[in-house]
């Protein structure tokens, strides 16, 4: 998608378990249609659809 978030530069092995890092990686995997939703309701609907396709 066009709204990539940047991961911080951590040096500790614990970084793999940090919530924000995992969220950034997942956010960057979402299609642009989800990220660029015009409203929260549309975002939720598109997110549900996208996550439903993963299962």
Could you please describe the fold and organization of this structure?
This is Nidogen G2 beta-barrel domain-containing protein. It comes from Tauraco erythrolophus (Red-crested turaco). The protein is mainly α. It has one domain (13-54). Helix content is 55%, strand content 0%. It contains 3 helices and no strands. It has helices at residues 19-29, 32-35, 40-54. The mean pLDDT is 82.
Layout: helices, strands, pairs:
Blueprint: H1 19-29, H2 32-35, H3 40-54
Provide tags for this entry.
single chain, 55 residues, mainly alpha, 3 helices
Overall outline: elongated
Count of individual helical segments: 3
What low-confidence regions span 5 or more consecutive residues with pLDDT below 50? none
Biggest pleated-sheet summary: none
- Going by helix content, strand content and strand pairing, the class is mainly alpha
Q: How far do the termini sit from each other?
A: 21 Å
- Report the order of strands and helices: HHH
Strand content bin: under 5%
Please give the share of residues in helix.
40-55%
Gyration radius from CA atoms, angstroms = 13 Å
Query: How many E-type strands?
Result: 0
Whole-number tally of structural domains: 1
Mean pLDDT: 82
Tell me briefly what this model is.
This protein has helices at 19-29, 32-35, 40-54.
